[in-house]
Amino acid sequence: MVCPWCGKEEETLIHALKDCPKAQDILTLGGLDNRLLERDYSYCIDWIEDIMRTLDIKVVVDFFTTLWNSWNNKNKFIFRGQDEDAKTVWERAKTLCHDFRIHNLVNTPMLPITPTCKKCEKPPCSFVKINFDAIVANEKMGYGVIVRDADGFMLGGSGGFKEAVMDIEWAKLMAFEESVKVVGELNILKVIFESDCASLVNMIKKKGRDFTILGHCVDKACMKLDNFILVEVRWANRSCNKVADLICNFALKSSCSWNFSMYYPKEIHDSVMFDAIN
């Protein structure tokens, strides 16, 4: 099949994008170096790789935008009979680059960047925060739980593994059950649970309205939350869950389980502080 634009050569990908006179006119208006247009290439991918090695990365983005508009113009010519001149195609590509601020880092972006929390936040006063996580690999699952007080100090935690094949949501649910157990052993009454699994957090918040098997198990696990005075379940960014993730990865790789605690009753704390002052 000959090229519908020039009608001189067989239409290959390298010819349609580079060797065709109409395509070369569009690329020349875009400022592409003659060396990259006149050199012979057997395959289109070789030409693309040569361009990416030669041009600056920001310019490469504009090049692909121009290339896409050139290809789109050819499709219009084949299917609709519309043929625009090279300058019109280039101006459209230039406008597209400008409107979406593809390479201009000086101008204010059209879509403002939404700030997100990238670190663990302390819970409100008198509350304790529990981060839990789980991982599934090699027909095993590992879970990790970390407990912090209102000052950000670690009170305890748990880590472990189980040899079972399961979906990640089931593994996260097991980690949640383990976190409830850990907090119960520490006799804490005001708690905030955090997880980076949005689906599990939504199920917990909508308990009683999910009629799936997983939803039923979530409702059963949430019954133990009645033992606390105040309970809140939140979604947290994965970067806020690094310690729990580290524990569950270590438990999975080491195939071990353990509980650790640094919590002691308020009476002991007051006695220690009194001896220290005196």
TrEMBL record:
GO terms for molecular function: nucleic acid binding; RNA-DNA hybrid ribonuclease activity. Transmembrane segments: none annotated. It comes from the Eukaryota. CDD domains: RNase_H_like. It holds the Pfam family RVT_3. Residues 131-251 form the RNase H type-1 domain. PANTHER family: BNAC02G40300D PROTEIN, POLYNUCLEOTIDYL TRANSFERASE, RIBONUCLEASE H-LIKE SUPERFAMILY PROTEIN. This is RNase H type-1 domain-containing protein. It comes from Gossypium schwendimanii.
